Amino acid sequence: MIKEKLTEGVKDLISYLAESGMDAESEKVRNLIKRKQMQTNLQEYIEKHEKWNEVSSLAEEIDFEKLQDYMKKEFPEKIDKGFFALKESERTLWRESLIEQICSYMEVETKEARERIKRIICDSLDIVHDFYKRDIEEKDYILMQELLDAFAEKTQGTEKEENVQKGSCINIKFLTNSIQCSSNCVGREKDIEELENLLETNDRILLSGMGGSGKSTLAEKLFERVRDKYEHIGWMNYTGTMRESILKSFLLYKEKCSEERIELIVDWLCQYGNNTILFIDNVNADFEKDECVQLLNGKVKMFVTSRTISLEGFQTVQIRSESLTECTEIFNSYYKEKRTEEELKEFLSYLDYNILLIELSAKAAKYAEMSLNQYIAQVCESGIDSVHDEIYTNYDKKEDRIIDRILRLYNMQGLPEEQVRILQNFAITPDIQLPFLYREWANLKKKDVIRLVRLGWIKKTDTYYEMHPLIKESIRKQRKISSQCCEDMLKTFYEESFRNMSDEFEINYTKKLIMRSFIDYFWNDYEIRLEDVIHMYGMMCIGFSEYDEAVKILKDYQELLMKNYPEEKEIIGEFDLSLSFVYFHAYNYKEAEKYLNKVDEMEEKEHWLISEANKFEYYNCHLMLACKNRDLDTAEECFKRICENKTEGYKFVTAVVNMTSGMIESGYCQKALSYMLKYQDEIEKRLKKRPSELAVFYSNLAISYVGIRRLAEAKKYDSKALEIRKRVLGFYNRDTAISYEAMAENYLEEGELEKAWESVRNAKQICEKIGISDECELYQNILHTENIIGKKMSYYLI
Q1: Class of the domain covering 529-609
Q2: For 79-122, what is each residue's pLDDT tens digit?
Q3: Quick one: 189-318 is in which CATH superfamily?
Q4: Which of 60, 225, 251, 283 is the most buried (most CB within 10 A)?
Q5: CA 278, 282, 287: angle at the middle one, nearest 5?
Q6: Whole-angstrom Cα distance, residue 204 to residue 247?
């Protein structure tokens, strides 16, 4: 089938590979895996890492003796099974599976230790890769792999290459991080067994029940029960859309950009049918309408929990209430003090036998330093009157009563203001697991957080914080939340450290979800102005290449301002400036100029004076567009204005980078180089925490050196830019493609044709994946370079 799609040039290469005796070569490479030198390299690397155990945190510590034993006995055989797979997708999945297997072998319990092992194994595989590339014959084999990957891309037509073939020996058991099951699941064995049997005949099951009825706990226990029955299994907390939930939770394809990653994961899931099951907690009533859910319809099993009664296409199971005996056992697991059975029975009835209320009240009673009878009396006599707001359309009266009970149990009256601030911070976060870093972001005192964890307000596991949605609801009803309670968190997000996109994807994405939740909560509160927060969120979206979302929220809030505050034209104009900035980064230069022209018109007609805070953004936008249009005179005038405004620090070096980009576009490489060398130390210092922008600077340096034929320096800085972009932006990114194309030209100049071919192939693959059109200048440059290299190697693709 594939050969029919190949051009004559591709057929020639297939013939070449066949003549090379790939099977024999593969066997030869497998036999060489135990070479003493490679084993020595690996051992030295592991021993070097072991020294860091002395200074690592407790969470990061791992058993290096056990790891060394694995690397000597098991690792070579594991290499045989996937390292030499011909398809890139198979090699990627094998690598992720290997890491999971080693973590299981090592009995790793903490996220920090897991990440440490992951780094060690990835580096070890790189050592193996480099070891074979040094040998001519093995290097040919590696090259064959890369060429076959290129041909698979070239010949797939409208068909997508299968990321994983059915029947593959690759076994990625856990698609997400494992979960920490709740201990209090009393008397549910029969329920779990019934749900397990139901999964045998149903692909989609909804476990429905009121908030606090124990749905999540039951689902967690079922997850543990069936985990060995399925080839692949995953657990997700629903974050509003399936797309965001997958990006937040899945372990696959982390090195890819968001759009590419979600496409690859969905395609991967579609390969396995009933061999895969996803547990999704706390979905909403629109879940079945979600685009990703519809794509996965009939492809994977789904077990979801929700407060909604039914979902189209799902078999509904209504969770039953716990019995008095079961509720008593749950209460006793927390509260050990003396009490009479009668008073406890009366109290449990007051709590509607709701699991959440029972756990919360038991924890609160434990720390109340009074008898249960006194505590019950206090709960019943204090608190807020009955809540009449309808919480959900389903079970409205009983839901209201449960909220009322939570309000009485968890009344913030009497709590110190610092603890109230902490609760309000948590109450407006999205319904996700928050990393421990959240305490630092929001500047929350550890002792106060611990106190609230003990009282049951906040749940804490080994790796994250969490607050039950019903507790959040009760907090929001007790007191109007002020935006000031989140000021510390906002200041942290404003800092330069947020733009350090070298952080884990999950951490940065969590920050984005928190900020969006903050905006949604205060959106209709006209007493709170969100301009600064909206501008910042737009910049966050640019960091994830989510330009459409940035444009939408900026336009929506601008429209809200025009409706409610039409007289504040300056503030409205600032949104035009932000929109111009977003469109520029989205490569929509026409719209960028349109919105910047609107700012110019307002300045001219309305005599609007650009505020000191926005002067840099204004002149910088003009500078960027002038450079793009190769209007060097205008660019220099804007740069002069920026200097006159005494711009310092990060903003100034950004202007230097933009200015030199314009000089390079206009052909003034020597002039650009003199600017960059003059400010190089300052630029590297200021952009240290903004690596993607530092990569632009290095790329500009390289281009300038090429312009004056200093090729060694050009290669040096192109290499630096490429490494940063791969690490920070990921593989499938336009800037990464630019760096690969530049490296291809460097290697071509030096006669290193194999490295040149590898680089240009990567650049082309990126462009095709992210949708860069054939007419784009970058793509044309790549094709031209590929043409030259291909002819020189006699591997030219028609």
Answers
A1: mainly alpha
A2: 666 666 656 666 777 777 788 778 777 777 677 777 777 778 77
A3: P-loop containing nucleotide triphosphate hydrolases (3.40.50.300)
A4: 283
A5: 75
A6: 21
